[in-house]
Specification:
The complex is a heterodimer of chains A (about 400) and B (about 325).
Chain A: E1 26-27, E2 41-42, E3 63-64, H1 76-79, E4 85-88, H2 89-103, E5 107-111, H3 127-131, E6 136-138, H4 143-155, E7 159-163, H5 174-181, H6 184-187, E8 197-202, H7 217-220, E9 227-230, H8 234-246, E10 251-256, E11 263-266, E12 279-282, E13 287-291, H9 295-308, E14 313-317, E15 320-322, H10 326-336, E16 339-346, H11 351-363, E17 372-376, H12 385-391, H13 395-405
Parallel strand pairs in A: 1-11, 5-6, 5-7, 7-8, 8-10, 9-10, 13-14, 13-16, 16-17
Antiparallel strand pairs in A: 2-3, 4-11, 9-15, 12-14
Helix pairs in contact in A: 2-8, 4-5, 9-13, 10-11
Chain B: H1 2-7, H2 22-29, E1 37-39, H3 45-51, H4 55-63, H5 96-112, E2 123-128, H6 135-147, E3 151-157, E4 160-161, E5 164-165, H7 166-169, H8 178-182, E6 186-190, H9 194-209, E7 215-220, H10 238-245, H11 249-259, H12 265-288, H13 321-325
Parallel strand pairs in B: 1-2, 2-3, 3-7, 6-7
Antiparallel strand pairs in B: 4-5
Classes of the chains: A alpha/beta (about 400), B alpha/beta (about 325).
Cofactor (chain A): thiamine diphosphate
Keywords (chain A): Chloroplast, Metal-binding, Oxidoreductase, Plastid, Potassium, Pyruvate, Thiamine pyrophosphate, Transit peptide
Catalytic activity (chain A): N(6)-[(R)-lipoyl]-L-lysyl-[protein] + pyruvate + H(+) = N(6)-[(R)-S(8)-acetyldihydrolipoyl]-L-lysyl-[protein] + CO2
Chain lengths: ~400, ~325
């Protein structure tokens, strides 16, 4: 539980490859104890920075290593081991799910196309063949009812994982999520627990249109009685999935459509990530940048530029959207005295808005400047690629914001 | 008694009485085992009592005291009992039907995946005629029939949804006909006659227990009072009310018992007296029970109170002693 900013291991060279078959983010082994983050900037052939997360095209790009000098950590040697296995994020989710289903026969999956189809993002691939059609249940298209069914099953002893094919579809299940999922433990006086996990991909994708690009974390955040977490790397995806399944509380796990093909080396052994903790991505001194999910990668990309310009940003992936890890965040604020929040939610009523309020309430005395919150525009996500790019926060805006903040 | 207590200011909010519909609850629930589940709506006091929740616990819950079945946190519309497998008590109509479907799913899962061969628990879902126009009803009929879940959908058709007559709200008012459309039998029964209801219930529950799947039972019944204690009940035709009042299920059963020499007047009077004593005792118990303390406010929000998060001092908020006293900021 304690704070997790410790020094990072020395950067190692990555041999640049000019023939990348598919766009994958390559990340070294990570542990939450000794965090080391090395991002890779993918450059388009026309020279413009690519956001690097569209895994649909093939592009030939050189990899640029991070030249930041990093502090050494006593336990760095153990984490630089070659053990572990490389995995894509959706495979990590599947691994976590499968391990939990092996471990506890009461864990089951429900959702549209999770069984025979293997999941629309392949997170449940192979599970129906292994565990059977009842344990990996293909439901009809009735979100409200099958989410309610999951809640009823959770109340009577099972541990269901309900998948929303796209998080936006869970708007149809809002009745069940708000009234039953969040509240029944309380209104029953503690008699019934609801150990359900509701998960699915959300966020702005690649021209998916307004309705498939919603950020439900801002709509669900007020519901009392639920916890919300957002995964961003294969390591924390698997860890959070397992922790969410083992938790007795109802947990909503937010994945992102564009992050499913991230690749990372994760440990072979069993591990979970604490549901309430934030993750220190890059320690620094000048400014605290709080972010989660896909925006983490935009922030890290901006961090490259900032470092080259002489800034030292501290990047924290808050991971736990409800409740906030005020300890990690607070320690960071007390160190840097400047906060920038970068999120994908809309300006109005998003996670950033709540986080701004929470930090102002708790750490006002430590702030040297008002908190800056960069969020998506308050517009339905347009289809056109250019418009869509302007809807979400881009690395260049992050760089400008930090420069403004640190003046 | 509930109404009396309400008007005396012992309970507040929305209270929905079940007068006139008792045959449905008794006819069905008295056939269940303790492990079978019941899901109801806001009109759930009698379902709770039928399932075995003590009258004291129900009355305390209505008064909002800590000794209530839900520690006073649920109230009239949210009666829960894990011990008696009463899964609620739901305020929004239709909300409970998916939960009931889930409980039935667990029963099937336990039998087929967890290999508990003797698990034949049945779930009963009670709801009204208004709910039968709601999407959740149809979605659950589909899923229950699709997977042959051990559930019985019991429609307490009292012809009125607050002030909306069933005939004005529904294109085809015969609800039992909607069962076969989804592949399950639909049965209509006179909901004012407890023995008839019981006979139908027996077949439906046996069908579910044997794994043959769900049944839709429409019980034609009537509520003698308004929708809730706040409802002036001016819209319903007095002739209609008189028609059904003549069919009061309790008096009808009394008449039946006496005519068939199954019980004497004296015995029935003794039962009446006993019931009065139980009710009085429940009221007294509830009256004397304590109100919830401030520290109860934040309990039970999460099964695992770590869900309140990590505070600025690095400790989990739930570890803060002020948290349990209810004085800590959350």
């Amino acid at each position: 539980m304690a704070a997790i900013f410790q020094g990072v291991g020395a950067a190692t060279a990555l041999s640049p490859s000019n023939s990348i078959a598919s766009k994958k983010f390559q990340l070294p082994t990570r542990r939450s104890v000794s965090a080391r983050k090395r991002g890779i900037v993918l450059v388009r052939s026309d020279g413009s920075l690519n956001l690097g997360l569209n895994s649909r095209g093939r592009r030939d790009q050189p990899l640029i290593t991070n030249a930041v000098a990093t502090k050494s950590d006593g336990s760095a040697a153990s984490t630089a081991s070659k053990s572990g296995h490389e995995i894509l994020l959706f495979e990590a989710l599947q691994e976590g799910l499968e391990e939990e289903m092996d471990r506890d026969p009461r864990v089951c999956v429900m959702g549209e196309d999770v069984g025979h189809y293997g999941g629309s993002y392949k997170v449940t691939k192979g599970l129906a063949e292994k565990f059977g059609d009842l344990r990996v249940l293909d439901t009809p298209i009735a979100e409200n009812s099958f989410t309610g069914m999951g809640i009823g099953a959770a109340m009577t002893g099972l541990r269901p994982v309900v998948e929303g094919m796209n998080m936006g579809f869970l708007l149809l299940a809002f009745n069940q999520i708000s009234n039953n999922c969040g509240m029944l433990h309380y209104t029953s006086g503690g008699q019934f627990t609801i150990p359900i996990v509701i998960r699915g991909p959300g966020g702005v994708g690649r021209q998916l249109g307004a309705e498939h690009s919603q950020r439900l974390e801002s709509y669900f955040q007020s519901i009392p009685g639920i916890q919300m977490v957002a995964c961003s790397t294969p390591y924390n995806a698997k860890g959070l999935m397992k922790a969410a399944i083992r938790s007795e509380n109802p947990v909503i796990l937010f994945e992102h459509v564009l992050l499913y093909n991230l690749k990372e080396r994760i440990p072979d052994e069993d591990y979970i990530c604490n549901l309430e903790e934030a993750e220190m991505v890059r320690p620094g001194e000048h400014v605290t940048i709080l972010t989660y999910s896909r925006m983490r990668y935009h922030v890290m990309q901006a961090a490259k530029t900032l470092v080259n310009k002489g800034y030292d940003p501290e990047v924290i992936d808050i991971r736990s959207l409800k409740p906030f890890d005020l300890y990690t965040i607070g320690n960071s604020v007390k160190k840097t005295h400047r906060v920038l929040i970068v999120e994908e939610c809309m300006r109005t009523g998003g996670i950033g808005a709540s986080l701004t309020a929470a930090i102002n309430e708790n750490f006002h005395d430590y702030l040297d400047a008002p908190i800056v919150c960069l969020s998506s525009q308050d517009v339905p996500t347009p289809y056109a690629g250019t418009l869509e790019e302007w809807t979400v926060v881009q690395p260049a805006q992050i760089v400008t914001a930090v420069e403004q903040l640190c003046k | 008694m509930c109404a009396q207590m309400y008007y005396r200011g012992k309970m507040f909010g929305f209270v929905h009485l079940y007068n006139g519909q008792e045959a449905v609850s008794t006819g069905f629930i008295k056939l269940l085992k303790k492990e079978d589940s019941v899901v109801s709506t806001y009109r759930d006091h009698v379902h709770a009592l039928s399932k075995g929740v003590p009258a004291r616990a129900v009355m305390s819950e209505l008064f909002g005291k800590t000794t209530g079945c839900c520690r006073g946190q649920g109230g009239s519309m949210h009666m829960f009992s894990k011990e008696h497998n009463l899964l609620g008590g739901f305020a929004f109509i239709g909300e409970g039907i998916p939960v009931a479907t889930g409980a039935a799913f667990t029963s099937k899962y336990r039998r087929e995946v967890l290999k508990e061969a003797d698990c034949d628990h049945v779930t009963l879902a009670f709801f009204g005629d208004g709910t039968c126009n709601n999407g959740q009803f149809f979605e659950c009929l589909n899923m229950a029939a699709l997977w042959k879940l051990p559930i019985v959908f019991v429609v307490e058709n009292n012809l009125w949804a607050i002030g909306m007559s069933h005939l004005r709200a529904t294109s085809d008012p015969q609800i039992y006909k909607k069962g076969p459309a989804f592949g399950m039998p639909g049965i209509h029964v006179n909901g004012m006659d407890v023995l008839k209801v019981r006979a139908v219930a027996q077949t439906a529950i046996a069908r579910a227990r044997s794994g043959e799947g769900p049944t839709l039972v429409e019980c034609e019944t009537y509520r003698f009072r308004g929708h809730s204690l706040a409802d002036p009940d001016e819209l319903r035709d007095p002739a209609e009310k008189a028609h059904y009042a003549a069919r009061d299920p309790i008096t009808a059963l009394k008449k039946y018992l006496i005519e068939n020499n199954l019980a004497t007047e004296v015995e029935l009077k003794a039962i009446d007296k006993k019931i009065e004593e139980v009710v009085e005792d429940a009221v007294e118990f509830a009256d004397e029970s304590p109100h919830p303390t401030r520290s109860q406010l934040l309990e039970n929000v999460f099964a695992d109170p770590k869900g309140f998060g990590i505070g600025p001092d690095g400790r989990y908020r739930c570890e803060d002693p002020k948290f349990t006293e209810g004085t800590a900021q959350v």
